[in-house]
Each structure stands twice: as C-alpha cells, then as structure tokens.
Amino acid sequence: MDFWPEFLASSWGKEFVAGGFGGIAGIIAGYPLDTLRIRQQNSKSGSAVSIFRRLIAVEGPSALYRGMAAPLASVTFQNAMVFQTYAILSRAFDKSRDSREPPSYKGVALGGVGTGALQSLILSPVELLKIRLQLQQKPHIGSTPEKGPVSLARSILKAEGARGLYRGLTITALRDAPAHGLYFWTYEYMRETLHPGCRKNGRETLTTMLVAGGLAGVASWVSCYPLDVVKTRLQAQTRSSIKYNGIIDCFRKSVEIDGYRVLWRGLGTAVARAFVVNGAIFAAYELSLRCFFGNGQHETIQTDNALKVPSA
Predict the structure, then answer these.
(1) pLDDT tens column, 98-129
(2) Which of 223, 242, 246, 307 is 20 to 30 A from 15 (CA-CA)?
C-alpha cells in the first residue's frame, strides 16, 4: 500500500511519470502524421496531401488515430526504460570521466546505440500492431469488423505464435540502435551550442530544449528512413500475404518495382512529425519535472542524471 506514495516521492518515480506524460504528448501530437507516413510507405503512389484527403473522405477523421491505443498503452514503460537505460549506459561507456561531469559525446552516442537496441525488444511488437491497424481499411457492410490492438494481438498469437508478433524485430533493432545514438548525440551537441554551459548547469531554456529536440528527431529520422520503409513493409504483411522473404528481399523487390525513390517515400511527413513529436515530448517532460521538483531542484536533478531524454 505504501509503494506508490514512496515511488512518486522519489526522483526516479517522478522522472518515470514525467517520461510517460512526455511520451503521451508526443504520440497525440504526431499520430495523424504518423498514419500518413505509414500509408505513404506502404503504397505505390500518392502524396501526403492526396492520401490525407482520400482518408478523410472515405474513412473519416478518426482513421488518423486508428491504432493509437497500442503505443499509448506502452509509452510510459517504454519512455521510462529509455531514460534509465540511456543514463546508465552513457555513464558505463564513459567510466574515466568524473561522475559530476556530464558524459562525453562518445558516451552519449554509445549509450544511445545501446538504448535503441534494447528498446526494440519492446517497440517491435507495438509498432507491428500500430502499423497493421493504421493500414486497416474501414470495413464494408457485412464484412469483418475492425480489430483493436488486443484483439489483433490475440489473433496474431493464435495464428503465428510469438514469432508473428515479433516480425520485423531485426530491422527494428537495425533502425533504432544507430538512430538513437545520433539522436542523443545531436540533442546534447545542439543544446550546448544553443546554450553554452547548459550540459553542466542544466539551465537551458525551454526554447533551447524544443529546438534541440526537434533537430535531433529530424537528424535521427533522416539517417534511418530507408530502413524504416523496409520495416513498415515487412511488418505490414500477414501470414496470408507474404511478399518478402526478409530484409534484403524486401529492399531488392521494393527498389526493382518502384525505384530507389521508394526508400524516401513519406520522408517529408516523417520530418514534420519528428519535429512536432519531439517538441511535444520535451515540453511535456520538462513542464512535468518542473511541477514535481520546482526550478531549483530540477536543475540539480538534470545535472546529476546527465539529462535522460526520450526518443520518438
């Protein structure tokens, strides 16, 4: 009975909850753009504007948020894991440095790579469910009704087992590990560039955090986007509609049919989403911590914990 009051009174508990708020804000803010990105990646043609118009006309505005329950349900734990894992690994890869100093950029990058690789174990099945639901068309009268994330997960487990739910795990890890390394490195570098000395004193402005976070999100997405296109296509296929026999086969067939441009289809939507999502995450995360700690305490917590930030 005393667990939750003690947990929420601790620094770790407050950061856990703040990370949850940040992740939820990011998903709500960027989900419509994410739905458009997924549909662009899995289609043979169509701009974001034309897909948006067709989706609204045929399926209604609610289709933009279809499948959002799956990432929302996991976002608190996922972001908390990202925060803590990054903080531990960035220090572990930088043991020669004084613990009172912020981790080096090398420690930041390597910690981000490790965090991305571990996060894929949680993120892969969640994204598979999200992608399947985002691509699910509005049913016609008399056809099979739409499925929610729980119903879809059960049907996949029944038909394919855990292996079906983890389809695309390898490509998710290949995408997330280097992208997270670049994400954290870019964020730390940009916040220090925009506000010199802030990595030590933790006194950067909210605007600095928003801009640095947005640029970090854009950099990480641009670096891994071709892998994300392949991942979407692999996770979109079901047991009854197998088109690709692995990562290399998916890459080769996609390029043969649609050309190399297919690997960048939807990039503009993804970049816009990355900036919006990271802005929302950092704003919600920062404001939540300030509510919990107050400005003075929060500055100390930031410095001591080497800035644990989420990725989207």
Answers:
(1) 767 888 999 999 999 999 999 999 899 999 99
(2) 223
Query: What is the value of pTM for the model shown?
Result: 0.79
Interval 167-194: pLDDT, tens: 999 999 999 999 999 999 998 999 899 9
DSSP calls for the chain: --HHHHHHHSHHHHHHHHHHHHHHHHHHHHHHHHHHHHHHHHSSS--HHHHHHHHHHHH-GGGGGTTTHHHHHHHHHHHHHHHHHHHHHHHHTTTTS-TTSPPPHHHHHHHHHHHHHHHHHHHHHHHHHHHHHHTPPPPPTTSPPP--HHHHHHHHHHHH-HHHHTTTHHHHHHHHHHHHHHHHHHHHHHHHHHSTTHHHH----HHHHHHHHHHHHHHHHHHHHHHHHHHHHHHH--TTS---SSHHHHHHHHHHHH-GGGGGTTHHHHHHHHHHHHHHHHHHHHHHHHHHH-HHHHHHHHHHTT------
User: What local confidence, expressed as pLDDT, does residue 310 receive?
Assistant: 39
Q: Find, among 33, 8, 24, the residue nearest to 73 by Cα.
A: 24
